């Protein structure tokens, strides 16, 4: 291998390995691994093929995983070190493709890993955004967004000859397909097909992440999830979505026809997974394409319904896409007659306006004549798919009993649950080598192929020697992470404190604000001389959507607390707060091995599944959480003695919403400690650091609105969290809990999720 690497270095740069800089080293290794990857044959053609459509693929860095999954990283590492080079430097150089917001996009990426690992005949379809989710900076304790390019220094994508014209109402764009190979093992890979417009122009991005939203020919593929708080932003989303399905749809059909597929068997041979509502336009678009090839409308509808399945990821109303009819017509007029006909079919069959596709909405009561037509994308996806699934058991139950009840009554057999999973390669084997080596020394290597074998760890749960080894591995991870945080954030972490971690997108329903109130409560108690049983470091990582003001206010509060608390010599021995800058997949891979408390504290019913909860459990953290999403399944697996649960249950919360009876103010006024914590947000100490308007707005919201009920569980949260911190003082018993968590995490492998999809939905 050494010769091959040397030759490639000569060929690419005319240099010896020794003389390469980090960028060249990165390019060398990624070229080397890509060549190997591309030699791997694609999965054998089977009778049926799946296309996984997703607006997001939150990939994370590729090089390290590719080298590891190909089984050559150790050897490459040694060759480099013989030549005076450090492999991590090259890996660190890679710009991360952050083509997703959070869990939904990361799930799609994990599923690609599993397609490759299981050798399934399945590919991803997406958009080649030039800038992923913004890069986050902090200035004046506030979030600032800047663009996050990743393509410049990457050679991961392979340009193909596949090209399409995509027609919109007022313009046409040319598209090219780029392929990204996804590695899993030496002999198997999968592919994501990313479509880009040829006329894209990165130079139109002005300061921050602002650009002319109307210049579709230049901007269509620039950004993931451009700000859609105004109409131009919403239209751009529609352009993007149609672009993806138009290219993807033709790619499917071309490939199908080329391979001799018969149009009338389309629904039997093709599977299309619609990842959330974003790719729903594939349904009318595919009907359009099939009818243009000669299939009757009725037959096209039948075939596409057989082929498609839809995954719902959230019950939050704001995320269930509804497009203004006029806006859709302004962008994709060719789809409108089809959408109309689909609506007619539905109206002809069912006498329930909640399941109609097109809603005629009264603008205002005074002017009842004036109707706005709204197109419900989820309703299209449900009627014209063969299966609909939720992403954890509780979420799937809520869909059937509440959110999508009217549909369930029509189609009881359509609904399935497929509990989410995570790529064990990325979030365990490749990011926590020390732990996986320890486990291998205890139970052998089989768990790498069969994660359920992790259960064998249970026989060591009372073995003090093993528990101490585990504790030592955790300590090393904490040290490594602390070094990194010192470098990146300039904050000194105390290894002896418990690392309490909440990493996820910032949203009120995830309740980072409740965690911040815990921090305030603890701070105030320390000031009064009531010390926590063990020092604690509360670590946050979160990006707020650029136009989500309340989320930005919460980040602001946390940054102000960080400033106040970490500088306070009376307090910082017992409590520290860190908000990580630009939390992303790479950061996740560093912090997850170091995590001890996994914060999963969403308002029950609101977090469909969560996947960070799975990643942290797998790496030996103990969950502190509500009975929400997949936490419920984690609890069922590990048992009450290995998890810390608190808070109201989903049915209680749903009931409160239905009756509209939650009053934050009553809790605030009744509970002295809560009142003090909430009021501290606008205290002299904090206002000296932060922005009055932002802090007052947050304070006011918590008392008078608190739509996601941060106060409802606060008292119990503080109590249970403090119990967990006390439990931590008995290190071995904490290690025992951690080992129980690792042992039971096998269920959460994304390979299991994909097998479930295959059994329940695709039958590939
Ligand atoms: O609970 C998570 C879930 O684990 C859920 O909030 C997330 O999907 C994860 C994977 O299933 C999710 N993201 C979105 N909706 N649900 C979403 C919606 C609109 C735009 C971007 C993301």
UniProtKB/TrEMBL annotation:
GO MF annotations in UniProt: glycogen phosphorylase activity; pyridoxal phosphate binding
Gene3D superfamilies assigned to the protein according to its UniProt record, in alphabetical order: Glycogen Phosphorylase B
Catalytic activity of the protein: [(1->4)-alpha-D-glucosyl](n) + phosphate = [(1->4)-alpha-D-glucosyl](n-1) + alpha-D-glucose 1-phosphate
Broad enzyme group: transferase
Cofactor: pyridoxal 5'-phosphate
Cellular compartments per GO CC: cytoplasm
Keywords: Allosteric enzyme, Carbohydrate metabolism, Glycosyltransferase, Pyridoxal phosphate, Transferase
Residues the record lists as N6-(pyridoxal phosphate)lysine modifications: 615
EC assignment: 2.4.1.1
Example of a GO biological process term: glycogen catabolic process
Family to which this protein belongs: Belongs to the glycogen phosphorylase family.
PANTHER family: GLYCOGEN PHOSPHORYLASE (PTHR11468), GLYCOGEN PHOSPHORYLASE, LIVER FORM (PTHR11468:SF3)
Functional note: Allosteric enzyme that catalyzes the rate-limiting step in glycogen catabolism, the phosphorolytic cleavage of glycogen to produce glucose-1-phosphate, and plays a central role in maintaining cellular and organismal glucose homeostasis.
Descriptive protein name: Alpha-1,4 glucan phosphorylase
Organism: Anaerococcus hydrogenalis ACS-025-V-Sch4
């Amino acid at each position: 291998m050494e010769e091959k690497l040397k030759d490639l270095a000569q060929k690419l740069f005319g240099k010896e390995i020794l003389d390469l800089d980090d960028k060249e080293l990165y390019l060398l290794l990624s070229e080397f691994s890509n060549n190997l990857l591309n030699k791997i044959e694609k999965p054998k053609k089977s009778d049926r093929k799946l296309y996984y459509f997703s607006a997001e693929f939150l990939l994370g860095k590729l090089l390290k995983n590719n080298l590891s999954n190909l089984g050559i990283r150790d050897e490459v590492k040694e060759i480099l070190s013989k030549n005076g080079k450090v492999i991590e430097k090259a890996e660190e150089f890679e710009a991360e493709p952050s083509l997703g917001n959070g869990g939904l996009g990361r799930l799609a990426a994990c599923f690609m890993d599993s397609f490759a690992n299981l050798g399934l005949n399945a590919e991803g379809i997406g958009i080649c955004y030039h800038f992923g989710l913004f890069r986050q900076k902090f200035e004046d304790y506030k979030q600032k967004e800047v663009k996050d390019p990743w393509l410049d220094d990457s050679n991961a994508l392979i340009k193909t000859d596949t090209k399409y014209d995509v027609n919109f109402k007022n313009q046409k764009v040319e598209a090219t397909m780029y392929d990204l190979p996804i590695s899993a093992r030496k002999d198997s890979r999968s592919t994501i097909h990313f479509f880009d417009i040829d006329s894209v122009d990165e130079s139109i991005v002005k300061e921050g992440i602002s650009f002319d939203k109307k210049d579709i020919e230049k901007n269509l593929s620039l950004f993931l999830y451009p700000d859609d708080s105004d109409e131009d932003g919403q239209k751009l989303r529609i352009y993007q979505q149609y672009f993806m399905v138009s290219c993807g749809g033709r790619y499917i059909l071309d490939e199908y026809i080329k391979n001799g597929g018969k149009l009338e068997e389309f629904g039997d041979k093709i599977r299309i997974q619609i990842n959330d509502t974003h790719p729903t336009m594939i349904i009318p678009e595919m009907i359009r394409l099939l009818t243009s090839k000669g299939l009757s409308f009725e037959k096209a509808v039948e075939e596409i319904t057989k082929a498609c399945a839809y995954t719902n990821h959230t019950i939050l109303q704001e995320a269930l896409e509804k497009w203004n009819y006029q806006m859709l017509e302004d962008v994709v007029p060719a789809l409108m007659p089809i959408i109309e006909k689909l609506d007619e079919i539905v109206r002809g069959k069912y006498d329930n306006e909640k399941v109609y596709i097109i809603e005629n909405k009264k603008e205002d009561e005074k002017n009842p004549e004036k109707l706005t037509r709204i197109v419900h994308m989820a309703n299209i996806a449900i009627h014209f798919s063969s299966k609909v699934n939720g992403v954890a058991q509780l979420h799937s139950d809520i869909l059937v009993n509440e959110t999508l009840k009217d549909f369930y009554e029509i189609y009881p057999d359509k609904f399935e649950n497929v509990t989410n999973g995570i790529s064990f390669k990325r979030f365990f084997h490749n990011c926590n080598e020390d732990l996986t080596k320890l486990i291998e020394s205890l139970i052998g290597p089989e768990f790498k192929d069969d994660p359920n074998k992790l259960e064998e760890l249970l026989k060591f749960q009372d073995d003090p020697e093993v528990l101490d080894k585990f504790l030592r591995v955790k300590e090393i991870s904490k040290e490594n992470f602390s070094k990194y945080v010192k470098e990146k954030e300039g904050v000194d972490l105390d290894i002896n404190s418990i690392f309490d971690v909440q990493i996820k997108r910032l949203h009120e329903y995830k309740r980072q604000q409740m965690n911040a109130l815990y921090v305030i409560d603890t701070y105030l108690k320390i000031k009064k001389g009531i010390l926590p049983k063990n020092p604690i470091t509360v670590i946050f990582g979160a990006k707020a959507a650029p136009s989500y003001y309340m989320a930005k206010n919460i980040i602001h509060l946390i940054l102000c607390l960080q400033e106040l608390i970490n500088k306070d010599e009376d307090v910082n021995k017992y409590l520290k707060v860190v908000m990580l800058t630009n939390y992303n997949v790479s950061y996740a891979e560093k912090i997850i091995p170091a995590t001890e408390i996994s914060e999963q504290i969403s308002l029950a019913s609101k977090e469909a599944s969560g996947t960070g909860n799975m990643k942290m459990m797998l790496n030996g953290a103990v969950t502190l959480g509500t009975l929400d999403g997949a936490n419920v399944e984690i609890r069922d697996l590990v048992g009450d003695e290995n998890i810390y649960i608190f808070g109201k249950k989903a049915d209680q919360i749903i009931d409160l919403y239905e009756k509209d009876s939650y009053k934050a103010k009553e809790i605030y006024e009744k509970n002295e400690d809560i009142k003090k914590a909430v009021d501290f947000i606008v205290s002299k100490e904090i206002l000296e650091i932060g922005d009055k308007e932002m802090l007052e707005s947050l304070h006011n919201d918590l008392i008078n609105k608190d739509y996601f009920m941060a106060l409802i569980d606060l008292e119990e949260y503080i109590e249970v969290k403090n119990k967990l911190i006390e439990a931590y003082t008995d290190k071995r018993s904490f290690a025992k809990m951690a080992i129980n968590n690792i042992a039971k995490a096998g269920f959460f492998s994304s390979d299991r999720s994909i097998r479930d999809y295959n059994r329940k939905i695709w039958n590939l």
